[in-house]
Amino acid sequence: MVGLASSYHLAKKGAKTLLLQAGDFGGGTSAANAGRAQVSEGYLDPVNIQAVREGVARMDNLAGELDSDFEWQRSGYLCLIKTQPLWDEWTRRSQILSHNGIPTEVIDVDTLTRLEPFLNTEGLIGAAYTREGLLNPFKFCWAYRQAASRQGATLLAHSPVTGLEVQDGRITAVETRTQRYAASVVAVMCGAWTPQVTRLAGVDVPIRHTHAEAMILEPLPPWLLRNTIGLADFYELIHGRQQAVAIGLGPHPNGGILVTEAVAQTDELHQRNSVWGITGIARELVKLYPTLGKARVLRAWGSPTPFTPDGNPLIGWAPGLENLFLAASFMQTISVVPVVSEWIADMILGKALSIDLGLFSPARFVPFRP
Ligand SMILES: Cc1cc2nc3c(=O)[nH]c(=O)nc-3n(C[C@H](O)[C@H](O)[C@H](O)COP(=O)(O)OP(=O)(O)OC[C@H]3O[C@@H](n4cnc5c(N)ncnc54)[C@H](O)[C@@H]3O)c2cc1C
Fold it and tell me: N or C: which end of the chain has fewer CB within 10 A?
């Protein structure tokens, strides 16, 4: 979704744009996500907050701008809290978010039960509540893909980049198995696969990944689950563990229930499921929502999730090569894509930004270590 949205803005601003996609459009980690436009779980610095706030605000008119519906809707998010330190942390977080235009509040178990009557609240002391958004990620990618094409971009699926030609400190051409494309600027927006691609130009980017699995249940009555549910201790649960389940669930626009996430550490980049992952998700789901014990699973999938050493994305020019631009490893990706993709296009075209994105500069990790 980052590459497709950036291609749309580049073409719209008049740049001759070619997108080379290894597989299907939107088929990377973008095909794996739960469609949430998250607003409350990211970093609290002004840049990240602004990107989320402006990105989500732009969603309301984006389907019109792209001339394609992607099932955008506002939705409630409940972040379940089990301990006093997490309650204190989310109280502070709620104040900062609310103060910055993202209304968030902490609520007690009685209120939580009124909002979600079928949730098992055993072991919970409350939740943080905020309004976020939901969309269909396949249609979101497709909307950008179609709009980019209408703006004159050339988009080629099943065209993996196999080589980057470097001469005198700049990339002069991009190669696929059958073609060579001369280029003045090369932007790598390959999510978890970014290091594989930049290595073709001898650049080791500090992006690693975990592998996450998810599944979708059959369509069920909407009163069973009204809000998206997540855990305040998500990162504590998965941090440093070889395998862990941090449960999250939410209503999909088509009535199904999306259930995430079994996380595993692995060096391999793949999109498979595992027996432990799917059974682990199912076990945690039934603990939290016993009523869903008999619901049928329609489909399950897995995908790598990229991350950098400090958790912030890499957006900007790669040190060491003159014309290699990087945009990868986003947090709250869906929320920020509508605005950050336009900022990316402006940076590539050398236009001044109204915001300082130095926080995301790849140069902060120099020298790059893989
Ligand atoms: C289970 C799960 C649930 C998630 N839920 C959410 C959510 O609700 N909300 C949210 O905001 N985020 C969510 N995420 C994260 C989100 O999906 C990602 O952050 C986002 O999709 C990354 O988009 P991207 O465009 O940067 O990368 P990708 O979608 O991974 O795109 C990178 C593309 O690069 C291509 N590529 C790789 N190698 C090459 C090559 N050699 N040549 C050409 N192309 C190449 C790949 O085919 C791929 O399509 C979730 C992730 C997972 C795993």
Answer: C
C-beta of 334 in contact with ligand 1 (< 6 A):
yes
Q: Are residues 176 and 153 both part of a single domain?
A: yes
Q: Give the single-character DSSP code of 160.
A: -
Lookup: tokens for 20: 């080379």
Q: Is residue 194 part of a domain?
A: yes
81 CB burial (10 A radius; 0-12, 13-18, 19+) = buried
Output the residue whose Cα is nearest ligand 1's atom 3.
33
What would the 3-class secondary structure string for 222-266 be? HHHCCCEEEECCHHHHHCCCCEEEEEEEEECCCCCEEEEEEEEEC
Contacts of 265 (CB under 8 A, 6+ apart): 210, 211, 241, 242, 243
Query: What domain count does the chain have?
Result: 2
Q: Is residue 96 part of a domain?
A: yes
The answer to whether residue 357 sits within a structural domain is yes
Ligand 1 centre from 290 Cα, in Å? 31
Question: Residue of the nearest CA to atom 35 in ligand 1?
Answer: 190
Tokens representing residue 195 in the block: 């290091």
- What confidence tens digit (pLDDT) does each residue in 246-287 have? 999 999 878 899 999 999 999 999 999 999 999 999 999 999
pLDDT digits (tens, 9 = 90+) for 152-176: 999 999 999 999 999 999 999 999 9
CATH number for 338: 3.50.50.60
Spatial distance between the Cα atoms of 119 and 364, rounded to a whole number of angstroms: 43
Whether residue 302 sits in one domain with residue 158: no
pLDDT of residue 350: 97
Q: What is the CATH number of the domain that holds 246?
A: 3.30.9.10
